[in-house]
Structures are given as structure tokens and as C-alpha cells.
Input
Amino acid sequence: MLRLMTVLPMLLWAGNAWAEDDDPVLAAALAQCPGAAVFVRADEQRGQALAQRLAGIVPAAPQLREQLLEMARIDQEARVGDWSPSMIEKMLAVDAANLPRIKQIVADHGGLPGARQVGADGVSAAWLLVQHADRDADFQRQVLDGIMPRVESGEVSAHDFVLLTDRVLVNAGRPQRYGSQLTAIGGQWRPQPMEAPEQVDQRRAALGQMPLADYLCVAVRMYPPPPASDSP
Output
């Protein structure tokens, strides 16, 4: 009998914000999941290309950038732990505290702020806060509806587009398209229900994403699932 079902709500390596050389946990995971490494390095290269395009450009809103980075730091800090009830309660409290401010920032900018306003890392931070704004699924959907210009410019990665798309679908009670949103069942991470699961790797490949099996391989090693509970 399945005793434990916990949604995996953390970021599994956010677009421009990750680098194998800077993250020994990611590097160790990729050593065990070689199929994923090619895709990770391709994303790193895209992030480096964006950084080169923006080289020498000073963000127009440096204070906002710093605020976004600090909010994202607190968000990620709350997601480090044992996935106990107290840890999850703290994580949800952080998400709730961040929600009004990220909603105001998005409203002020007519969508996610751009890299010229807050830098590439500021865009990634803003995206992260939207991804974790589960208390307001309509807000997440509104951001997703207007996100394509940021994806086309490279400011939001295809990986982050996939994560937000699936998040919006799952929060609407609909099957996800790319299998990125995971649930712990019996001590194992499993994708939440998917649209036409036999076609998920085709959909992922169309956006340059690794096969779902490789994604799960890395997820398990970076974020060990909570153990199955024998309690009723």
C-alpha cells in the first residue's frame, strides 16, 4: 500500500542558474547519469552565450535584481533538508511570503522582467519565484501565457519553460506534457499523470530536453526521495 505521496516542488536545475563545475552534487549525479550530461552541458553553453551577449550591460534596475536574488536564495535554502513536515511547512511559508512581491514585480513589468533590467540571473530568480507560486495558479498561468518572448530571446531556458508548463497543468488538475513534476510514491520519485505518456520523450526532444529516464536519474541522485512510511 502506498503510504506516502509528496510532490517534488523544488527546482531541478534552473536554466541559466546552474553549472556542473560549480555544483559537486550535480557533477556527481551526471557521472552516474551520462545520458543527461550532454543536455546539461548544452544548456550551460546556451547560458554562456547569453552572458556574452549581455557582457558590459549594467542592469537598469540593480536594486530589484538584488531583491530577486535574495528572495530566490531564501527560496532555495528552504528546500534543503529532510522533507519532514516541519521542513515542508517552512518551505510553504517562504513561498507564501514571496508571492505578493513577485506578483507586484510581474505586474509592474507586464511579465517577467528582462535581462537588461535585472540581469540573466535576475530573470532566472524571477522565474523561480513564479514556479513556486502555487498558492496562485492563475498567476502562474498568466506568466506562462506571456513567457514566449523571454524563451525566444534565451532569457528563459526551454528547460524552465517545460517546468512552468507542467506546473501550470498539474496545478489545474490536468495531465502534464513533459513529465517534469514528480511525486514520491513508496520511496521513489515518479512523474505525476502525463498526457500521452508514450509520446513524452518526443515532446521533450522537440524542446531540446533530455529523455524522461535521464531526468529521473538525475533527480533521484540530487534529491533523494523521502522514505516510504509504514505508518497508516
